[in-house]
């Protein structure tokens, strides 16, 4: 029984690691985002339209999380895409979705909460 179980567990572990690695994406800080935005980076804000209207980064494109999968073809495939939300949770979910369809994404950790705390500009 041990002879069968050990190889099976090894295969399961390797499969889990491979699956995670293929859909992984980096997380960046708001400071790193600010630097790349100054160079014209593409920023996707996945908060609701109401949240977006309350305050967003001037160059951000709003695409709510619940629409990301259906509208992924609208997200550029030819350059890195930075994804932001309020805290970094929804943007991580959107990043996972976009990564699976071949987009080069970076999740913005801390989201708009960290952006505002850092004193960076917000458009209303």
TrEMBL record:
Query: Where in the sequence is the signal peptide annotated?
Result: 1-21
The protein in question is named: Rhodanese-like domain-containing protein
The lineage's top-level taxon is Bacteria
Q: Which CDD domains match?
A: RHOD (cd00158)
**Domain Rhodanese: start-end pairs:** 37-124
Q: Which SUPFAM superfamilies match?
A: Rhodanese/Cell cycle control phosphatase
Q: Which PROSITE patterns match?
A: PROKAR_LIPOPROTEIN, RHODANESE_3
Organism in which the protein naturally occurs: Deinococcus arenicola
Report keywords, A-Z.
Answer: Signal
The cross-references to InterPro entries, in alphabetical order and at most eight, read: GlpE_sulfurtransferase (IPR050229), Rhodanese-like_dom (IPR001763), Rhodanese-like_dom_sf (IPR036873)
